[in-house]
Amino acid sequence: MRPSKTRRAVEPSWLEPYPDSALPDPAPGPDARYEQREAIQLSFIVALQQLPAKQRAALVLRDVLGFHTDEAASILETTPQSVKAALQRARATLDSYTVERQQAPLPDSPTERNLLATFSDAVEAGDTARLLTLLSSDARVTMPPQPLELIGHEAIGVFLDDRAEARGAPLQLRPTRANGQPAFGYYLRSQPRGMMVLTLSGSKVDEITFFADPALPGRFGLPEHI
Fold first, then answer.
1. Which is higher by pLDDT, 202 or 218?
2. How far apart, in whole angstroms, are the C-alpha atoms of residue 24 and residue 33?
3. How many CA atoms lie within 13 A of 104 on its CB side?
4. How is 26-77 classified by DSSP, letter by letter?
């Protein structure tokens, strides 16, 4: 059964999870390393996942690759005015997301550790009600490459209960990090099923992204089976 509050995205723009351990980390101190992770996360997660196609293209061509507006317009087969408008909207979205993400707890901080431990316990216990208390009021669940979003507690709760009933057993989780964010490899009856990547804000989970690929946990150095 499909939850009532869902939204079909205009396009399936998404990014596969990438291990934090494989990212370059030349910065000397924890604060600098955190800033570097945030920069990586913003460039990938915001530019590639949050923005519509035209805004994403304008942002990448101008701010990442350094093309002039006229050159970007030629590449995109549009007008310079259109590129400027798309770039303005993309930057506004980026600024808004940056402010929101500043509220996320520091990696491996007590706040993050407590939230992730409680989240893991709730998932492994199959306790949907408890899990929902950890989500922000406008939290969303995505399952790329499916262009579908579940928004809010009601829709997410129905989805989680339906999936739990279909599985017949709770998931088992193993922690890791991906794309600069906390993540878990998830297993069913000790066999790998995929990855979930979390977006945090304060002491809440803003987003859960499921990647249903049994090969992913192994790529993150997680066990092939539990």
1. 218
2. 10
3. 25
4. --SSHHHHHHHHHHHHIIIIIIIIIS-HHHHHHHIIIIIS---HHHHHHHHT
Taking the C-alpha atoms of residue 112 and residue 175, their distance in angstroms, rounded to an integer, is 12
Place of tokens 């600069």: 180
Residue 91 CB neighbours (<10 A): 15
N- to C-terminal Cα distance for the chain?
30
Q: Write down the pTM of the prediction.
A: 0.64
- Which of 164, 169, 187, 198 has the alpha carbon at shortest distance from 1? 164
Are residues 193 and 186 in contact, defined by beta-carbon separation less than 8 angstroms? yes
- Residue 17's closest CA among 36, 55, 44, 57? 44
| Res 107: pLDDT | 83
Half-sphere exposure of 148 (CA within 13 A, CB side): 13
